[in-house]
Amino acid sequence: MSGVNIEGLSIKFGHNEVIKNLDLQVIEGEFLVLLGPSGCGKSTLLHSIAGLIDVSAGRIHIGGQDMTDAEPAERGIGMVFQSYALYPTMTVEKNMSFGLRVAGTPKAEIARRVAKAAEMLQLTLLLDRKPAQLSGGQRQRVAIGRALVREAGVFLFDEPLSNLDAKLRAELRRELKLLHQTLGSTMVYVTHDQVEAMTLASRIVVMKSGVIQQIGTPAEVYERPVNLFVAGFLGAPA
Ligand code: ADP
Ligand code: MG
Q1: Looking at the DSSP assignment, which residues form a beta bridge with residue 208?
Q2: Is the CB of 131 under 6 A from ligand 1?
Q3: Predicted ipTM?
Q4: pLDDT tens readout for residues 76-102
Q5: What is the pTM of this model?
Q6: pLDDT score recorded for residue 31
Q7: Considering 18, 46, 125, 231, which has the largest number of Cβ atoms within 10 A of its Cβ?
Q8: E strand or H helix at 189, and its extent?
Q9: Is the pLDDT at 238 greater than 60, yes or no?
């Protein structure tokens, strides 16, 4: 298990500074939700933790180690994206094990991890199916399973439920919560959905234009928003 420590992070695309001198400590084992409107830099921040983009300034520590310049595979993270492109010709089992096979993980270990993740995600009876034979919710579970088999200390989620209907979203929210309780891993979860943030988070980070506005428990940011932006986005109606 591990936390994430971000110090003085700045990310620029050309002259556009999307993340501005940002400090953030993700506590080991917490479910941290990054909440903010579209374009505020949530995905960019997540991608920088994952090592998918270069930072312009600042340091990122994961599990106490400086990972600012480390390759994604070395960072000990699992990531679930919004668009969960599964390999259409591969079974659920193969989709989930692909990354481990590429990494050269021993077969018995792969089988153990896939069985465990499949059980947690209620996919055990679907392991031989192809993605086209699955519902949207089941496909999204496979995408989560692909990250889970890495047995990482930190999981990053980028709006993983945004393509699903309201009923499925509510169901998967419950499952993600249960999963977090079972695994005890550190979760960093991006969303622009207030309900998702309020129900999942141990702490919420409210962002606007690459700057953190407030960090607190759901009750704190809801009941005591520090400014009008947070109040308008999430707070209790006055
Ligand atoms: P969010 O996930 O909160 O919707 P993003 O992190 O995707 O926001 O984007 C933040 C800003 O950075 C946006 O203005 C977006 O256009 C810009 N941006 C994101 N990725 C790139 C990129 N690869 N190149 C140039 N600009 C980008
Ligand atoms: Mg985004």
Answers
A1: 211
A2: no
A3: 0.98
A4: 999 987 766 899 999 999 999 998 998
A5: 0.92
A6: 98
A7: 46
A8: strand 186-191
A9: no
In ligand 1, the atom with minimum distance to the C-alpha of 210 is 10
- The confidence score (pLDDT) of residue 235 equals 64
For ligand 2, the distance from its centroid to the CA atom of residue 218, given in whole angstroms, is 21
Distances (CA, A) of 30 to 104, 155, 180, 207, 213: 30, 11, 9, 18, 19
Q: What is the mean pLDDT of residues 55-59?
A: 98
What is the number of the ligand closest to the CA of 81?
2
Whose CA is closest to atom 1 on ligand 1? Answer: 39
Structure-block tokens of residue 61: 């520590």
Which two three-digit tokens encode residue 52?
Answer: 């998918």
Going from the Cα of 39 to the center of ligand 2, the distance in angstroms, rounded, reads 7
Pairwise CA distance, residues 171 & 131, whole Å:
20
42 CB under 6 A from ligand 1?
A: yes
3-state secondary structure of 173: helix
CA of 45 to the centre of ligand 2 (A): 9
